[in-house]
Design a protein that fits this description.
There is one protein chain. This protein is an alpha/beta fold. The protein has one domain: Spore Coat Polysaccharide Biosynthesis Protein SpsA, Chain A (Alpha-Beta Complex), CATH 3.90.550.10. Strand 2 and strand 3 form a beta hairpin. The protein is 33% helix and 23% strand.
């Protein structure tokens, strides 16, 4: 079997970051990616974390054409950020980013609101996808008891039944696929009117394989107000880990 370290060592990749959403569940006065987290915007944390990885050369950022917040960030003059027009849905923003890529074998896609992604998890994703020549996603097995809901007479939702969790995983990002395959899969899915919630769902819809690669659970997506506190804690803990690693190294 090929050595995954050698496969990755000299390769450079592009990451598409869809960031045209408004994040209504955050109940904030601005899109959630521009909320402040540990003295930086969530978007700045996310993009800087990506661009500081040794194998990531550029980020394609898909934002709304009427986004006035990006102009106020320190990211504006970064030459490694390529800005494209985002779409109405996440999948539209991803497709816009993919259409800006020419002659690229692989691409990663990462949520703007996942600032706690670690370089170790990115390493694992890239190496396993290259080693198996197959796209894949970071994910974690479900540990909670899962309930299927039922809504009766437009009343409060109730439990219908308990779902077997033994084969259920939480899907994270980054997700990594061959750029041409992903673009074609998204186009076909949109033509069929399918609901595409992440890149893997587009790949699944055309029958292509997708690896499940176990990732850290602190790679949370900031969705609700309480997630900001948790993300701040995780970022602080990761800094402590890195400092320990530097001292040990």
């Amino acid at each position: 079997m090929s050595n995954p370290i050698l496969l990755v060592e000299n390769q450079q990749f592009i990451v598409v970051v869809p960031a045209a959403g408004v994040g209504k569940r955050m109940q904030a006065s601005c899109p959630k990616q521009y909320l402040t987290l540990n003295e930086q915007t969530i978007l700045s944390h996310t993009i800087n974390r990506l661009l500081n990885h040794k194998n990531i050369a550029k980020v394609i950022l898909a934002i709304s054409d009427d986004d006035d917040y990006f102009m106020q960030t320190a990211l504006l003059d970064n030459p490694n950020i390529i800005k494209v027009s985002g779409g109405e849905e996440r999948v539209d923003s991803v497709l816009s980013g993919l259409q800006a890529i020419n002659e690229l074998d692989w691409v990663l896609v990462h949520d703007a609101a996942r600032p706690c992604i670690t370089h170790a998890d990115i390493d694992k994703l890239i190496s396993q996808c290259l080693e198996n020549n197959t796209g894949g996603i970071l994910a974690a097995p479900v540990v909670d008891t899962m309930k299927l809901a039922i809504n009766k007479n437009d009343q409060v939702e109730q439990v219908d039944k308990t779902i077997d969790r033994s084969h259920l995983w939480h899907a994270f990002t980054p997700q990594m696929f061959k750029a041409k395959e992903l673009k074609e899969a998204i186009i076909q899915a949109k033509e069929k009117g399918l609901v595409i919630t992440d890149e893997a769902s587009a790949i699944e819809s055309v029958g292509l394989p997708c690896l499940l690669i176990s990732g850290r659970r602190d790679n949370i997506k900031i969705t609700r107000p309480e997630d900001l506190v948790l993300a701040s804690f995780y970022l602080n803990q990761q800094e402590i880990e890195q400092e320990k690693d530097r001292k040990c190294g």
